[in-house]
Structure prediction request, 373 residues.
Amino acid sequence: MFKYKLLVLKMLDKLFVIGLFFLKFLPTKRKIINLPESIGIIKLSAMGDIISLLPSIRELKKIFPDAKITWITTNRVPIELFRNCKLIDDIVVLRLRFGVFFKILNLAFNKVSICFDFDQYYRISEILSFLISGGKSVGFSTKLKGKTFLVSVDYDNKLNEKIMFSKLVEKTYGKNVEIESRVPELLSYYTPPNKVKIFLRSYKNKRIFVYAGSSYNAIYRRWALENYLKLADIIKDYFPKFEIIFVGGANELGIKKKLNDDYTEIINEFTLKDMLYIFTKGELFIGNDAGLLHLAEAAGLKSVSIFGPNLYSKWGSLLTRSKGVEISISCRPCIKQYQGEVPTKCKKGDVKCLKDISIDLVFNEVKEVLTNN
Prediction:
C-alpha cells in the first residue's frame, strides 16, 4: 500500500508542471513580509530530511520568536517523533485521500505570512506553498521547480542538506544561520518510561549502537548484515569494555530474526523518541545511510556511517569526530532527489559501491573515533 501511494503521488506530481506555469501569472501582492505573524514550512518526507531541517526551523524561531510555525507534511513521516517539539507550533498532515482537498482549501483560506518550501523536487509542494501564502513563498530552484518563488536558492546536490536548508533562510532574511545539528527540542516534555530506564541500567558499559537496516524502499542502501556481525566481533575483541547493541524498528524485523544470543539487540522494542533518548546515553553509532543515522546525530551521538548510493558530504553527520565510509565509483551518487531520481534498487545490479567497502576500512574508522575520544 505504501509503495502504491508513493507511486500515485509521483504520478500526480508530474501533472502539476502545468499548474506551476500559470501560477506565476496570478495577480497577488507578492512581497516578502519582514515581520511575519505566521510561517509555513513544507517538507513532505522523510524522517531524516525533517530532522535535518529542524536546525533551520530553530533559527527561524530565534529570528521571529512570536511567529506561529506550521509544518505541512504527509503520513510518510513518523509524526509522533515530532509532536510536542518546541520548534513547531502546529503540524498539518496531508493524506492521499479525498479529504485532503478540504485541508488544502482550509490552508489556502487561512493564509500564512510566508511559506518556505524545503522540498527539492516535488512540484506539488511549490503549488501548496504558493496557495497557502498568497504567492509569498520561497524555495529551491532546480530543473523541476522554482519558477514561482519570490526568493530562491540554486540547489547544490553536493552540499550537506542541513547547510542547504539554512541557505534558504539566510537568503530570505539576510541573517547568518548557525547550524547546530543536535536537536534536544525533539525531547521537549519527554519523560523516559520505566522500560527505557531498566534497559539503560542493564547495560552500564559504554554503548555502541549498530544499525544494519534501512526503510523498506531503501534496502539496497544496506551494507551486508554479515559484515556488521563480523565488525561487531572485531570491536568486541579490540574494545572489550564497550557494549554493542543492534538497533532498528519494524523494517529490521528480518534482521532481528537472524541475530543469535551472541548479539544484544533492541530491534523494534522502543519508540523513536525512546531511541532518541537512548542515543543520548551512547558512545558511538555505526550504521547505514538511513533515518536512524539522523536520529543519532540529533541526539549528539557521533557516528561512523556507511554510504553507497548517496554521498556522505550530502547526507552525513556534521558532528565533530563523526566519520563517513564510502568509496569512489563513477555511478555515485545514483540517488538524485533534486531531479526526482530516487531508485529503490541498483541499476547495475551489483551494488558495488557497498560491496567493495571492506570490514577493515570501517573498523579503522571506528578505532580512530573511539581511541581519539
Notes: The chain is about 35% helix and 15% strand. Residues 10-186 form a domain with the Rossmann fold fold (CATH 3.40.50.2000). The longest helix spans residues 2-23. Residues 106 and 132 are 9 Å apart (CA to CA).
